[in-house]
Amino acid sequence: MAIKLRKPILVGGMGLSFGLWVWWNLQDSLMEAGEFGMFGAIALGGGLWLLRRNSSGETLSQEMAVSVNREMVETAIAQTQSAIAHLEKEAPQRDIPSLKQAFEELSTSRDRQTLQGAILGGKNTGKTSVKQLLEAEISENTTWIDTEPLFSSAEAIEQGAKDLAATSDLVIFVVTGDLTDSEFQVLQALRTVHQRVLVAFNKQDCVLPEDRAVVLQQLRQRVFGAIASEDVIALSAVPSPLKVRQHQEDGSLKEWLEEQPAEIVGLRDRVQSIIEQERESLLLGTTWREAMQLKATAKDILNQVRRDRAMPIIEQYQWIAAAAAFANPVAALDLLATAAISAQLLVDLGEIYQQKFSLSQAQNASGTLGKLMVKLGLVELSTQAIGSILKSHALTYVAGGAVQGVSAAYLTRLAGLSLIEYLQEQEIDPASRDGFNIERLGQVLQNVFQQNQRTAFLQNFVKQTLTRLSPQSESVDLNPATGVH
Known about the structure:
Layout: H1 8-26, H2 30-43, H3 60-64, H4 70-90, H5 96-104, H6 106-109, E1 115-121, H7 127-137, E2 142-146, H8 155-166, E3 170-175, H9 181-192, E4 197-201, H10 209-222, E5 232-234, E6 242-247, E7 253-258, H11 265-277, H12 279-327, H13 331-352, H14 359-375, H15 378-391, H16 394-397, H17 402-425, H18 438-451, H19 455-469
Parallel strand pairs: 1-2, 1-3, 3-4, 4-5
Antiparallel strand pairs: 6-7
């Protein structure tokens, strides 16, 4: 494993790790000093650059109530253009023309003469009837679409309905009573992307007259702060026929069912008012969503390109970490070496994701990452899991540094994958980034750890690492089920 070490953080950190190992073997009293040095290195510089980002103080409902304005749209378009430009620069072989064409169409979206309204809701809520009535009442420069029903077994169909609603200027969300949790989540998602929504309480005739006002008030309370009270409207698109009884002159009783007219005046008037008064805002909202979706598409492609470039770097450093810890089989020092390697890893990943880190920033970040691993219990859990795999195979466990070597490689991989996931979430334009969010990094780290804790993956990873550290381990089977040792 001949590896040229030309990275200043890497060389310095590994040198410090080796020095402490020597010191450890010279004096028994250095157990405390070694551990103190490890935690001192982990805490180095933390708190100056990696500050917890302050909360905006806004509640979710307040954020959802914000209307899209021209400034938001222009910002979204600029970010989309930047994402496409970065993709074109870093991966010109990708399908850039189609993205550019979609980007050019954004400008025409704001100048459309015809609005599109979508009728959204679950099964048997009367969506089709509501659509037909609105088409009869409001048709000038407005088209209405009836989406597939939500909450069906076909996930693709449901997602298609949500996507269609997101590209519409106005959504009529049809319910037949108080919101279920599933309906509330869909409604919340729509408002999060600044979709203009009316809640239509259909089939109110199926509710006792004395209970209708109660149900309507419950609906308005559930959406308070996200949707105005006047945008929650009761109606009956197809009222149930009314049974009529009439006594005849001969004394007989005649009964029949009499069709009732639709009760949709409230919804019709509110929709007309919105179209007349909020037309520009509706078009801006749709343009913003289209721009954000196009930006997300370009960013997903760019992230995949960058991830393909980042993975070989992570693998390189995980083997360096394994070799360093294997050479220094002291449990208190492998994390120190891993922290130093993680710092250099962060610098290299920052270059790929165009987020430059100074040496001190990288040291602080890697130290914070190490503290997160300790705080979340990932170091202990990883060591126990890897140790249990190795312990059942005496041939591999006799090497004193095997556990430390594999653990260091595994922790370095977790750090690298977590940094990739975190950096992929950031804005492409460095000027628009808010700094390092430690809380979010911790969440990402936990998710990555859970995704990489499968027994089959760990067994394969342990075998790979042992092969790197000791070629004699290549033929060892780490699957106890096979009975080979």
